[in-house]
Amino acid sequence: MLKVGFISLGCSKNLMDTEVMLRKLHDAGFELTPDESEADVIVVNTCGFIESAKRESISAILDAASHKEDGTLRGIVATGCLVERYRDEIMQDMPEVDAVCGVGSVDDIVEAVRSAADGKRFSSFKDKESSPMGGERILTTENYAYLKVGEGCDNRCTYCAIPLIRGHFRSRTIEDIVAEAKELDAMGVKELDLIAQDTTRYGTDIYGEYSLARLVREICKNTSIPWIRLLYCYPDKITDELIDEMRDNPRLLSYMDIPIQHISDPVLRRMNRHGDSRLIRDVIKKLRARVPDIVLRTTAMVGFPGETERDFEELCEFVKEAKFERFGAFTYSPEEGTAAASMPDQIDEQVKQDRYDILMRTQLTVAEEHGESMHGKVLTVLSDGYDAAAEIHSGRSYGDAPDVDGRVFFRSKEKIPAGEFVRVKITDSLDYDLIGEVISD
């Protein structure tokens, strides 16, 4: 029996593709192994969003190829965004790769693995805009699952290659999404994270209107999953209906991930972002007023072409004012095929890094103040189980999205298994994490 190892890189949307491919390989009779040294074939599901992600994907392929030297590895399959973006170059420039599948060719993973194992070259690039967006999968996460509600993007931000890689935006039907949500519910999933490149655009292409709130209601009506979380919500598409649903629906977590990228109007215009500084500020003000316990996450980019010191200072001041409970940032990288790559006034790499460091230090102060404000409060925490080495439990509150946010570490007189909800009184904080102890109801 062929053994297949898997390396999944990039975002949660890519992880969902990985889980679908794992299921297809399992159903085809392959043995899945977490140990790369045991694998006959290794699949690397790559990311190609920005320069650092591309470097990571290439390094992962080269690291996998090292297993060929000792004779244990028979083939490497590369899939995902890097492959889709550089479909003509991957196998030509990387002889280590034996087979490739673009983002529309998830269904061909079995044939690709078989070909790689037999020493045959294989390449598949099917139409990415007509490929399935869901499907049966093997969950690689515990207690939570991502659920893709759409694919592709039509925003055309000048720095972003996602439309080139993933195609135009398209929604799944409510019926299709609910059917998959019911399957995840039956598997015991406690948290459902709804994702897309632009989640708040959901439904506009097939229903003619923003339909995310309606989708949430249908998921709640047809499942018993306790927590539902919204990720990748663009500020210009956050409707009053969606805000009211978050306020009134106890299963829709008071958490929203809103990638703003910047706050300076000149920078936002050059980025071709949909919505100016005033819109962003108004949306945040409205969310905080109508959902008082909301936790907001955002991401920002520094070093975009033409970003002045004044633009950057405005961003830092806004981070202090908005007090985002969760925050991430990255430096701009010029991507082939995007409008920003050929813009004048490109920023020096060291300046980009310096600005990133300053911005993250600014946010750390905000995060520490938020952590201190949580002392004495009681939170519902979804347990990830007990760490015997550290002698402490860990988990996440409604304010902590998987993979990207902090954690809640807590002590308990009894062992709390993974997947159970407990009430934790917060007693301390450290950077982005909270510390507390279980209290009885």
How do you describe this structure in short?
This protein is an alpha/beta fold and 441 residues long. The chain is built from 13 helices and 19 strands. The radius of gyration is 22 Å and the shape is globular.
| SS element count, helices | 13
Q: Beta fraction of the residues? A: 15-25%
Number of strands: 19
Which structural class fits the helix and strand makeup? alpha/beta
Report mean pLDDT, rounded to a whole number. 96
How far apart the termini lie comes to: 51 Å
Helix proportion: 25-40%
| Main beta-sheet strand count, sense and barrel state | 6 strands, parallel
Radius of gyration: 22 Å
Name the overall outline.
globular
Task: Please provide a written account of the structure.
With 441 residues, the chain is α/β, with parallel strands linked by helices. The protein is built from 13 helices and 19 strands. The strands form four sheets. Strands 2-1-3-4-5-6 form a six-stranded parallel β-sheet, with helices on both faces. The chain has a six-stranded parallel β-sheet with strand order 7-10-11-12-13-14. Helix 7 (174-186) packs parallel to helix 8 and helix 12 packs parallel to helix 13. It is globular, with a radius of gyration of 22 Å. The mean pLDDT is 96.
